[in-house]
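Aim 2 progress. For HAD hydrolase-like protein, the working sequence is reproduced below.
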Amino acid sequence: MIRHKLHQPEAMIFDLDGTLFQSESILLPAYHATFEQLRREGLYEGETPPEERITSCLGMVIREIWRKVLPESPASVHRRADELLLQHQLSCLKRGEGALYPGVEDTLRKLQQSGIRLFIASNGLENYVKLVSRHKGVADLFENLYTAGEYRTESKVDLVKQLLDNHRVQSAWMVGDRSSDVEAGKKNRLFVVGCDYAGFGKASELDGADVKIRSFPELLEL
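Predicted structure tokens for this construct:
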């Protein structure tokens, strides 16, 4: 239970998948379509790996995802799978599929109206992150979008540090649903809000967060 309001930060930095966007709503259809195409191209044989293998990787950088999903396949297959997954996800978005979590757009607008600078920091690919924010009608609310795909960072810690330095942010909250978000916030000396509503992470995923929320609009209560 939230017992008192915290000092309003200058900025809030958000993860995308599992925090703002219900990524599984397009990820899983794209995942199955990717493996169907890999089989047609002769790059993969057998059944599609369990969905849990890809959903457990949400929040990781791309190269780590395919090492876990396809540990026996060479890097060339990983690259092709990555290309196909992105293509199918973008197709889903263009068809109007996928959804933000309840209350995300309204909450973001209220945070912006209160004078808080809003950013996204995601380990996802640049085109994917930008297309999600644009197609879901929230792109105009963010001062900038930072992705590992665009900035070639090794970790979210480095990505968030670049964001803070480039925009001269003095105080910020890191808001996300994965351990990588907690680490990025803590190593950059930020207050960390753990989003405990996506349901994909381990029980210990948000250990170290300063506070956990069960729905996105709880940010306004904080």
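The beta strands are 11-14, 117-122, 144-147, 172-176, 191-195, 211-213. This observation will guide construct design in the next reporting period.
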